[in-house]
């Protein structure tokens, strides 16, 4: 176990590569795309930050490439983590092609760390196929290290047993309010030499860290900010962090943590305190799935079926709305004729009223 107050150290992966302990997250907030992302990523690099966490799913590789080019940081100093989009990539060939595309978008000769984004919607065979693609990509030099995200112990064990390759990293949601099973997962990963990276350390983009009185009182006691308390807490558990931030002020705060440390009692007190109401819980780990999440997981298994159903349902709604509107218009125009009307066509343009001769005058 890392001594609580040790200075920030790089995380040594199984390959011997050193991964920076504090990175920059590029997902899930309004500023995580376009020119705002270019500006914030550039600010992070200019402030001395070196690890950027992105993913194929975030759709922002090109903006990140632009920021890297503008920063003029040497490739050898930079750490780029990305993830295979397992919502759409479910085979070995597709995974290899997607990595190739990512390299082009990022304008980089290699990616430092490529992760399987999640097991959602994948059979265990598909998960293994994607993992085998990552092994091949590493062997061919497209990526330097390979790992997983949102996987639990039995899934990691299975990948290792079937492929003979242990993931270098598991990126998961981690903060003081995750369930006990996540703490056990972190301990198990660490004991196997699998580095853990935390996402959601600050509660996601809807957070309001000030709403936790426990975090605020620790921040006051150590003369640091609320965010710095949470980031330090994670690092003291031996878990790297990748906070997302829009403003340069936040970026500086997150990157340059003052040299303070939380005592064991303070750390335990944080875990026991209520989770700030505004915190986002992702429930991405299989062990945390409740019945609703399982139902959703089942549906995403056949995502094409789901997509088709959604499009069909929307089309029916639109058709019904048009019919209803036309019907109302006709009713307003000639309410008596409507009572006796037969619709001879589905097409509103061809809509025709065939009334009995003299029907309207009789009534
Ligand atoms: N592997 C996965 O499945 C997965 C899932 C989710 C996220 N991630 C990765 O993890 C990264 C971080 O996780 P996250 O997006 O859940 O967000 P987070 O890092 O927990 O929180 C980001 C939010 O914290 C705010 N913030 C940042 N620094 C702050 C500071 N010093 N003081 C106060 N507020 C501060 C930011 O506000 P401002 O924007 O206003 O600065 C932003 O809204 C993502 O960007 C992504 O790269 C991975």
From TrEMBL:
Gene3D superfamilies: NADP-dependent oxidoreductase domain (3.20.20.100). Residues 344-363 are annotated as: Disordered. PANTHER family: 2,5-DIKETO-D-GLUCONIC ACID REDUCTASE (PTHR43827), NADP-DEPENDENT OXIDOREDUCTASE DOMAIN-CONTAINING PROTEIN (PTHR43827:SF3). GO terms for molecular function: oxidoreductase activity, acting on the CH-OH group of donors, NAD or NADP as acceptor. The keyword ATP-binding does not apply. Residues 33-266 form the NADP-dependent oxidoreductase domain. This is NADP-dependent oxidoreductase domain-containing protein. It comes from the Eukaryota. The lineage of its organism: Eukaryota, Haptista, Haptophyta, Prymnesiophyceae, Prymnesiales. InterPro entries: AKR, NAD(P)_OxRdtase_dom_sf, NADP_OxRdtase_dom.
């Amino acid at each position: 176990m890392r001594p609580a107050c040790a200075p920030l150290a790089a995380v040594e992966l199984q390959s011997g590569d050193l991964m920076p302990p504090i990175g920059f997250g590029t997902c899930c907030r309004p500023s995580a795309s376009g020119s705002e992302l270019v500006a914030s990523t550039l600010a992070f690099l200019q402030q001395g930050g070196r690890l950027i966490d992105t993913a194929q799913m975030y759709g922002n590789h090109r903006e990140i490439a632009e920021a890297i080019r503008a920063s003029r940081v040497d490739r050898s100093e930079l750490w780029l983590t990305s993830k295979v989009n397992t919502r759409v990539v479910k085979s070995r060939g597709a995974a290899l092609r997607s990595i190739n595309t990512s390299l082009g978008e990022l304008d980089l000769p290699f990616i430092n760390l490529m992760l399987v984004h999640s097991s959602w919607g994948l059979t265990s065979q598909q998960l293994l196929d994607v993992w085998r693609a990552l092994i091949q990509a590493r062997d061919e030099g497209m990526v330097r290290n390979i790992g997983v995200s949102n996987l639990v112990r039995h899934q990691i064990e299975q990948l290792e047993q079937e492929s003979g390759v242990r993931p270098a990293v598991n990126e998961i949601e981690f903060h003081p309010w995750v369930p006990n099973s996540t703490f056990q997962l972190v301990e198990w990963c660490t004991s196997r030499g699998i580095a853990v990276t935390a996402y959601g350390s600050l509660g996601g983009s809807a957070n309001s860290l000030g709403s936790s009185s426990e975090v605020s009182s620790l921040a006051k006691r150590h003369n640091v900010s609320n965010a710095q308390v949470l980031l330090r807490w994670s690092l003291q558990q031996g878990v790297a962090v990748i906070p997302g931030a829009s403003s340069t002020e936040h970026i500086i705060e997150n990157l340059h943590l003052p040299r303070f440390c939380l005592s064991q009692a303070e750390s335990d007190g944080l875990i026991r305190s209520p989770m700030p109401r505004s915190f986002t819980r992702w429930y991405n780990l299989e062990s945390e799935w409740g019945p609703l999440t399982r139902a959703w997981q089942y549906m995403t298994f056949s995502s094409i079926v789901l997509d088709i159903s959604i499009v069909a349902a929307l089309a029916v709604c639109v058709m019904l709305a048009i019919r209803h509107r036309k019907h109302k218009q006709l009713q307003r125009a000639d309410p008596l004729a409507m009572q006796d009307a037969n619709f001879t066509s589905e097409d509103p343009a061809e809509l025709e009223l065939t009334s009995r001769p003299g029907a309207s005058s009789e009534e």
